[in-house]
Amino acid sequence: MNNASTAHAYEKHKNEYGVKLSYLVSDEDKRHEQSIDAFKYNSYKLKCYRNSAFRLREGRGKGNEALVRWTALEKHQQHALIGKWGHPDMHLVKGMWRDNYVRDSKAAEFYASYRLADGRGLTDAQQEEYTTNASVLNTLEVVLMKRREIRKKKGSSTAPVWDIVTGDVREFGKESGHTIKVANLRRVLRDYKASGYKSLISGKLGKRNAAKVSNKEQRVVLEELIGKHQNLDNAQVAEWYNGLAAASKWKQITPTTVANHRERMGLTTYAARRGESNFRNKISMQHKRTRPGAAMTYWTLDGWDVELMYQKKEDGENTTYHNRPTVVIVLDPCTDYPVGYAIGTHEDSNLIKEACKSAVDHTKLLFGKRYYPLQLQSDHYGKGSLTPFYEAMTRLYTPAKVKNAKSKVIEPYFKHLNKRIQRALMPNWSGFGVTSEKEAQPNSDYLAKIRKNFPDFMGVVQQVEWLIAAERAEKVEAYMAMWDKLPEADRIEVGMEKYLDMFGITTGYTNKLEPAGIMPTINGEKITYDCFDIKFRELAYMDWVIKHDPADLNQALAVNAERKNGQVTEIGTYKLLLEKKHEQPMALYDRKDGDAEQLARINNYNKQLEGHILAHKQENREVLEDLFCSNPALETYQKHLLPDSKGQHKDRRNEARIGKAKKETILIQPVKLDEEYEVIFDAQAYVRAQY
Fold it and tell me: What pTM, to 2 d.p., does this model score?
């Protein structure tokens, strides 16, 4: 190492080590050519501003460069300087000491990784102290040997050498900061030779309270007492422990001893004292996640007891004022946009389903069609009954981990809404949670005075609706931009059949198909539905429940069901989408646009229906002909099952026998439909001409 160069990097000022600024900065116009480039000059100024102790001396021109305090530098910066320039201590080592003093890097590594019995490491100051002491002892051994060799060559006695180096060590201690007691120097050096670096560690470390709680049994007893779910205080733990200690002939402990061990045993006792949920939220390692990169890729939902109070009549007499509504919110975290919500007096499965329906309906308002999210998260409320529902409305359902609020990103959103309520100065705001500071809560005395002015339930519903509307108005533009980022291939459109199957409500009764259609009573009104799927008429014998959307009765879903003892049970093996029956006017004069198309649509359907039946009957005839031709013994049955359109069977039988049978394709004589209303425009012109 070039010690002459080393003298340029460090300088002592007011009995402290400093590093010249030019050996630290990376700015081309300010750095020394051998700078370690620790930081820029502007960063240096900022560090000085934030920490006045960072700078040891201000720069005052040439020859009086600014100094950065050695102890204020970070460890890696010190190590970089030491690796390049050596330790500042080397400036103070004179003569033989200077030539042989080397900072012991292995000692520094040893003390940095050393752990006490309780798992604690050494502090930075302790590491520095012990590394310096080891370096001094290493140098002492070299100096002792060389001084003795010199005196031997001169023929002098080596006895005074120890006194000489002892003085050197004492003098060096004033400048280097080593803590070796010269009076114990022989013993310290002897122990160092025998046990190495570990011998320099103070015996007091790790022995705090160790004499009282020293073996495994004692630690286990103390840990179990600290971890009791009754949360005993330190004095109570000490009392219980000392009772057992007296019987076991252990040393007694004090509440202070318990307090020290309580901190060190925090990891293994926290769950027992505070519960599994708190342990997972405050002790366990947490995942850090990013927001979704596009809309509709991830929804989360949860219920929230809104911090808005309303008054309610109990039993028609007493009035309570502490009531709070519950809102289930469906949130898209990409912009914290509330896609759907439902308000009620308490959370239940119906309120959750209503919120989900609200969310799906809102997507139609935003995007023109109904969509489901790619992923959905909820808590475990109603796990058994709601899981199939959740799985049906997403590609991937991921319930949040039980008793881990941090896994639900919607929780901070509720806090945001609560602050918004506070900011809006709503007089019936009840404040924050019970764990919040009292200073942040509303004046409870004033709330009691104005409680009779609290809104009723419908009034508080309007407040919540205003809150959601305000949120949407602020975020809808950003949310629509996030929707544009979702590729078409990843958009899950919701068909009407699936939508009604999931969210449609029923009348509580079953209905059968009648000639006019199927006619459930909804909100006291008979509504006629029909289906253009032939399967519906093939299944006319079945009972159906009709699922409908009260907000749009133009379509409904028929699901086969059975009714026993007043209870309706969905079977669900057949599901058919129905249309509300179009009503044709009796008078041609009353016809309007669309009537003719609907009339033609039904007539065409009926033709297809009859054609379907004819084709089916023809298939049956072909099967029977093959059967009778291959079984002559069935001739008696043939005349009943295979007559032609004229009622003859013998001729057909004979033709079949000689292979000349002609297949009859007309089994049912076509009926000439009354086409009076088919000629629409001529009839209208005629009627109008009469007036």
Answer: 0.64
